[in-house]
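Inverse folding, one chain.
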């Protein structure tokens, strides 16, 4: 799928997630319940131009071989860096009632939103979402035309869009310190980097989206083959790390 449609899909998914839930029929409106989260994009008219110019000579074609273990299994024994990035919450955190759903781009698209341009093709779109919000988020995406793909729903929700776009939503739990962790399975309780969700939102043109912090992204890409023995190191991950380190320098 071309970058134009993927950018539009990201914008639509974030808008759907951030929109307040409809109150139950007959429920009394609460103060502030009608306020909507900021849209994911201020002007979709510029999306096509941004995507077109962002895929120039820097774009390289690479395959993407993503396994579920790559997205849901940080180490239980490796201690992540305690470096944190100060910043305000990137989106409304769900607290019940009519609040929107918090989600964060991860993977290659998160890198590009941090860098502010499209640096390479992307086969799919990857997000993080809190496990308790998963069913609601999937329902919102189904309303947009996405179809759930059967899998290990306790760890990750996979969906396919009307035009074949793959969307993967890895789920997050929280430990007693509030650190994001793997919510279920053999790695349940394993910590993701402590600053995973601490960064500011990223942007490509007029499209803005919450993203995982670039420092955490570097740690995940570098450490995944250690956390998951036998997982090969991919050339595109090394290239992504180099781009992120250069931008952070």
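Residues assigned per position:
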């Amino acid at each position: 799928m071309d970058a134009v449609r993927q950018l539009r899909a990201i914008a639509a998914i974030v808008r759907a997630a951030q929109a307040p839930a409809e109150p139950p029929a007959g429920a009394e409106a609460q103060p502030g319940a009608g306020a909507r989260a900021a849209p994911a994009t201020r002007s979709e008219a510029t999306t096509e131009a941004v995507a077109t110019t962002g895929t120039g000579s820097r774009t390289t074609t690479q395959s993407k071989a993503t396994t579920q273990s790559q997205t849901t299994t940080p180490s239980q024994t490796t201690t992540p860096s305690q470096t944190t990035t100060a910043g305000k919450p990137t989106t409304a955190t769900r607290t019940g009632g009519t609040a929107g759903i918090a989600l964060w781009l991860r993977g290659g698209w998160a890198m590009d939103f941090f860098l502010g341009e499209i640096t390479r093709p992307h086969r799919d779109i990857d997000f993080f979402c809190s496990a308790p919000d998963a069913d609601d988020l999937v329902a919102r995406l189904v309303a947009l035309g996405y179809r759930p793909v059967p899998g290990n729903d306790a760890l990750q929700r996979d969906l396919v869009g009307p035009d074949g776009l793959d969307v993967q939503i890895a789920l997050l739990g929280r430990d007693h310190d509030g650190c994001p962790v793997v919510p279920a399975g053999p790695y349940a309780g394993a910590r993701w980097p402590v600053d995973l969700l601490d960064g500011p939102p990223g942007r490509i043109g007029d499209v803005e989206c919450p993203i995982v912090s670039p420092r955490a992204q570097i740690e995940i890409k570098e450490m995944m083959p250690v956390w998951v023995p036998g997982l090969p190191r991919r050339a595109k991950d090394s290239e992504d790390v180099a781009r992120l380190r250069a931008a952070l320098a």
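Residues 3-20+40-248 form a domain with the Beta Polymerase; domain 2 fold (CATH 3.30.460.40). The radius of gyration is 18 Å.
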